[in-house]
Fold this protein.
Amino acid sequence: MTKKIARAIGVFVLLSPPSVVLSFLAYTVFHQIILFASVLIAGGVAFYLSHVITEKNRLNHEMFLKSYELKKAKETLESCLPTDTQTQVYNERLLESRLTEECDRAARYQRPLSCLLVAVDGLPELSRQYGSVLIQVIIQEVADFLKENTRSVDIIVRQGEESFIAILPETQRNQARIVAERIRSAIGKNTFRIEGRSIEVTVSMSIVSFDSTIHQGKDDVLNALKKILTDARKIGPNQIAVPAGD
């Protein structure tokens, strides 16, 4: 009989909720009240903590969404702006329209037009060695040198991460070569300094003068600039290259 009672109590303990078990085991009404109140308090605290955690997660999620929305809005705004936000020269979005306009004008009125493609030598290696902060400084200063050594009518465009295109209206190839030499010399004489380090930087350039008998439009000019620069860089850095035969 005693074993049966013990077995029944064991089953009751296993199957019943903890609060009921504790109340059953309490040997006075006072203890039962204390236990019941403790269970209620513990449940309330657990519910409150659960609510706090849920609210925190909700706020974190909202902050993430707001941050993402601001980032996308900034990107959208920058894509609509005519200038690169870092260097304050024209961005790539304006390259096609401006170069098309100048090529059309040169072809229509038989006026000279030259373009420079200016690229910083060894930029990936510099980035790995010194970090992205230095690269931003170099790009900014190269943009400044381009603006300082060209005319107000010339159009400077940032193309990609490491290069610029200078559109030079009313400029023959020999005049463009003088401009290119001036830019290369100014950058070569400069010492880039950041965090106590001094770094010398060079640029390579290609020159293409628009010829309506050869170039159908901007795409031909851009492709020629890239090919000439690529071939020149095979020789080494700090190059100024023109089409073969010029």
Summary: Residues 29-80 form the longest helix (52 residues). The two ends are 115 Å apart (CA to CA). Helices lie at 2-15, 18-25, 29-80, 92-109, 123-130, 132-148, 173-189, 218-233.
